Amino acid sequence: MDKTTKGTLYVLIAMVLFSTGGFFIKLINANAYTIVFGRAFIAGLIFLPLIQWKKLRVSKNYLVLAIGYCYLCIMFVLTTKITTAANAIILQCTAPLWLYLYYVIRGKKITGRELIPRLFILVGIIVIFSASAGGNLWGDLLALTNGIAYAMVQHLMDKEYPVSDNSIIGLNNIILCLVILVLFPTQIDFSGLSMAGWLGLIFLGVFQIGVSYLVFFKGVRMISALKASMVSLLEPILNPVFVFFFVGEIPAVNSLIGFGIILFGIALTMIPMKDIAQIEEC
Questions:
Q1: Residues sharing a CB contact under 8 Å with residue 189, sequence separation 6 or more, in sequence order
Q2: pTM of the predicted protein model
Q3: pLDDT at residue 260 in the model
Q4: What CA–CA distances, in Å, run from 138 to 25, 81, 122, 129, 135?
């Protein structure tokens, strides 16, 4: 198996695991901050013995990665709770648009072949934000900002760090727990959590943000952040499907239309481009 195929497979596995977040978050009988803290604590605990403390070096890239990761995790759970799962995930998965804009700012020349797919993504966003989109406007806006955070995290995952991927995953989740404890201490409440809720939290911590980010890290380094963001097309497809079958939540018509337009735009970005190497060097 060549490096590109193996990297793509890693990202696909990560997307399947990421996709389970929607219905578990909907089903767990706890508020968003409790879920964020619980799954991060479990993930941090699992990876704690694997952290290479002696090799740890604080860098600008890692600080931004940690901040982006905390924002991404908090906002994904929060937006999944307050808007539809479909809106939360598809707006988060506008990351290819924001990555492309970042590369343009860095000097990437705009071409029609690259611009048109991003325009489809932009039109889809507008459709979702239309008055009858069926979600929650505030939740949709937060989900859109999460797309920017997701792009930032994907970009920074492609960088080299002095510690292992296991260390980064463990540290990120420990930092996330500390952020929740400092900013939202009164929101953490496990008292009413059922046995099913605890099992859901364990799955989220071990697999949905533990194992998933480990294989995602490996995949991104093999195929680049931009290509990984394209392969992540699978997540916004599976996430609302799982929520529909396990929770019964059906997105509004406008959401489905916008959802389809964004998916089409993201799919168009998967068409090979002559200057893809130039993009990846940014």
A1: 30, 31, 34
A2: 0.80
A3: 84
A4: 18, 12, 18, 10, 9
